Amino acid sequence: MSGFGIPQEEIATFLDIDPKTLRKHFRADLDRSSIEATAKVAQSLFRMATEGNNVAAAIFWMKARAGWSEKQRIEHGMAPYAVISGMPRADDLTDDELARIASRGLDEDEAPRRRGLYVINEPPDTAPTEWLDRHAPSDRR
User: Fold this and answer.
1) Structural domain range at position 118
2) For 104-116, what is each residue's pLDDT tens digit?
3) Hey, is 94 helix, strand or coil?
């Protein structure tokens, strides 16, 4: 029964004994039958994946045994703490622009924007030229 995946508690109930008694007297049989059942299923799955043109079996095998995943990983090369925003940084605005914003109390939506500018906030030790060398599109270098 264990070889068919029936839990030990249910086997004990069927035999009208306590699960502890079942494990005490049949430990080797329980362990062996479970391993044998797993081996049979693995053998069948392996055969379906390699000989039977069963794509689902092949995919399952690769996920379970080879670490495959359906998650997409996008490599961007930026530090994990970089923040991308469409707003210019205060450092990029002129003193006049900053004074105008401060004196009028403009909302962020009214602040002067630079078309197509996306700011990547990286640690201060990254020089602009160093950042461009690392991250700028190849046609803008």
Assistant:
1) 83-140
2) 765 555 555 544 4
3) coil
